[in-house]
Each structure stands twice: as C-alpha cells, then as structure tokens.
Amino acid sequence: GFMTRYERKLFDDLKSPHLKYWVPFIWFGNLASKARKEGRIRDSVDLQTLMNEMNKYRSWCSLLFGYDWVGIPLVYTQVVTLAVYTFFFACLIGRQFLDTDQGYQGHDLDIYIPIFTLLQFFFYAGWLKV
C-alpha cells in the first residue's frame, strides 16, 4: 500500500546486490524538486527544510543498514559470556548461608538449594544464547 504497482515494478526491476532503501528517497527528492518548479512549494527555504529532514532520515536508515552490515565482533560475545559465568560463580559464593552450628542470630538455614540464584542464572544464560 505504500507504492503504486508501477513504482513497485520499478523498484523490483532495479538490480542491486545491497538493500534498496535509498530508492524512495531519490523519488522523493525528484518529486520535491518538480513540485518547486511547478509552484506547489512556493519558497526555496521550505524545499530546503524538507530536503534536510529527508536527508536526516536517510542518514538514519544508512546508519541502521551499517549496523546490519557489520557483525558483532567475537570478542564482545566472549566478554559477555565470561561476565555471565563470573557473575554466577560470585553469586554462588556470595549467597551462601552462614553455618547454623555457630548460632548467629537471624541466620537460620531456610533452603538448601539457591532457587532464585539458579533462576537468575538460567535467565542470563538463556538471554546470552539468544
């Protein structure tokens, strides 16, 4: 619904090894220039403002395309993996209960398996795999 059948045919017939996100921007620029020549856009400042906003939007699309084009370096995934497992190991050590034989006030043994720590690890490890 964003293109006419003729525009869709032109878009599909354009051969490019990359994404063709820029084609509608070219069409828009040509239509805006034509509208200025025909008097539909009365002021060149308005045309300039319109083209500046369109160029800003096109540069954002280009930046997004760049993020898609370049993969995440392997070292980032390694660092995140190391951080998740180190955090889990620190939680296992840090969330241990005190020895109940020592008789510390308010530190009675209530559970034997750290359920919430395990749930947290499964969440983080699952998130890491995604």
TrEMBL record:
<dbReference type="GO" id="GO:0034707">
    <property type="term" value="C:chloride channel complex"/>
</dbReference>
<feature type="transmembrane region" description="Helical">
    <location>
        <begin position="82"/>
        <end position="98"/>
    </location>
</feature>
<dbReference type="Pfam" id="PF01062">
    <property type="entry name" value="Bestrophin"/>
</dbReference>
<keyword id="KW-1003">Cell membrane</keyword>
<keyword id="KW-0868">Chloride</keyword>
<keyword id="KW-0407">Ion channel</keyword>
<keyword id="KW-1133">Transmembrane helix</keyword>
<dbReference type="InterPro" id="IPR021134">
    <property type="entry name" value="Bestrophin-like"/>
</dbReference>
<protein>
    <recommendedName>
        <fullName>Bestrophin homolog</fullName>
    </recommendedName>
</protein>
<comment type="similarity">
    <text>Belongs to the anion channel-forming bestrophin (TC 1.A.46) family. Calcium-sensitive chloride channel subfamily.</text>
</comment>
<dbReference type="GO" id="GO:0005254">
    <property type="term" value="F:chloride channel activity"/>
</dbReference>
<keyword id="KW-0472">Membrane</keyword>
<keyword id="KW-0813">Transport</keyword>
<feature type="transmembrane region" description="Helical">
    <location>
        <begin position="110"/>
        <end position="127"/>
    </location>
</feature>
<comment type="function">
    <text>Forms chloride channels.</text>
</comment>
<keyword id="KW-0406">Ion transport</keyword>
<dbReference type="GO" id="GO:0005886">
    <property type="term" value="C:plasma membrane"/>
</dbReference>
<keyword id="KW-0869">Chloride channel</keyword>
<keyword id="KW-0812">Transmembrane</keyword>
<dbReference type="InterPro" id="IPR000615">
    <property type="entry name" value="Bestrophin"/>
</dbReference>
